[in-house]
């Protein structure tokens, strides 16, 4: 058996080298100027980040969803290669004998050869996009093939390295599709939130004021068409940018029901205004991901219109973070979160992305931010319930999130009144350890991960300048915070 295995490996190696030499000897008109540059453009996923940004700007809501899936597939493939693939098969890079100097890279890669990370990233992004939006996938496919071929053409990979990387990339795209479909199917279903008694029924929309975030794009505009048809007497206010919060507060003062059309950050601002005014909230999903709406069981604007017309609503819990005593008296005002709150790696990533996105686009900014945060792995040293801790990530969900993977997925109910608290301890390179544990089995088995459910949690001794995130919004934490969950705090429309 051992002799057969050695013979098989030898045959593969000889075939690899033969194809490698054929590519090296053959003249490919025009390729010397194009392929090396294309391979460099794909370094660190920059080419695919730019493609994601282009799709997001030029494409429809479905195309933006495809771009997100492509980026997620690329991240999964890259993480798998860097934590498992490169260290499992330590294959040397090809010798450059016979490869023309004009093709060779100025700086040769120092990592092992198997599998090809460039090929995995190219095919992962393309497969992720194609499985959601075939037309954009077809446009990307020739570029992905060219990037993969460029790795053999420039002499940095054997053909089998490229084929293995491409196969791993396609597999990552299929895994992400399966994961997202399972999540979406599970999420678009009403939970067990307590039905609200006395929610105003507005058959024609009179008494409803809907604030529309004009920055949400075509998804919000599609929801408005349904809204105008089903609730013609509703007042519509279109605005965006810094005026949004003030417009929501003003609308909450004069409306019977406050409506909002936008993504999760916009919905958070509307929920805050509705809470302070003591009125119900009507959510018309208009973002890219719509986490809150899907977890609530709202598939689209049609569901919300039907619920408002019939006066059908539920009570939900709302997460709250209240600053403790500090040098700034303005820190005493509470903030709220409908989805989740976090300190550590994710707020750092979000801050980098928001800072870089205006200059290089959202897709490349997200990839660069993730790379920088995972590479730095700086823990935050603070006190939890009076005990000193070093954490890489502190996550608090408004209600229990399902799933045991590296990221929480969805909630079955928003009416629990409990915080889903998850900690990833700092020290010892927690990022790769956490990722390896997530692939090996339930994340709860990882020694760096702790999960529990609490009514409240006190944070203190938070270093100055520590970022926090809530429902996708970015801010800086005060020296002390109290997190708690307010049961049945907000009335939200949803069909029964």
Question: Which secondary structure elements does this structure contain, and how are they paired or packed?
Answer:
Blueprint: H1 2-25, H2 31-41, H3 46-58, H4 61-88, H5 117-130, H6 134-153, H7 159-187, E1 208-213, H8 218-230, E2 235-239, H9 244-254, E3 257-262, H10 264-277, E4 281-285, H11 291-296, H12 301-310, E5 313-323, E6 335-337, E7 340-344, H13 345-360, H14 362-376, E8 380-384, E9 387-398, E10 419-425, H15 430-440, E11 449-454, E12 456-460, E13 467-470, E14 473-476, E15 481-493
Parallel strand pairs: 1-2, 1-3, 3-4
Antiparallel strand pairs: 5-6, 5-15, 7-9, 7-13, 8-9, 8-12, 9-10, 10-11, 12-15, 13-14
Stretches where pLDDT is under 50 for at least 5 consecutive residues are 1-6, 326-332, 433-445
If you average the pLDDT, what whole number results?
80
String of helices and strands: HHHHHHHEHEHEHEHHEEEHHEEEHEEEEE
Q: Count the strands?
A: 15
Dominant shape:
elongated
Strand pairing plus helix content: what structural class?
A: alpha+beta
What does the largest sheet look like? Answer: 11 strands, antiparallel
Helical amount: 40-55%
**How far is it from the N-terminal to the C-terminal residue, by CA?**
64 Å
- What is the alpha-carbon Rg in Å? 25 Å
Beta-strand share of residues: 15-25%
> Tally the helices: what do you get?
15
Summarize this structure as a short list of keywords or feature phrases.
alpha+beta, 11-stranded antiparallel beta sheet, 4-stranded parallel beta sheet, 15 helices, 15 strands, 20% strand
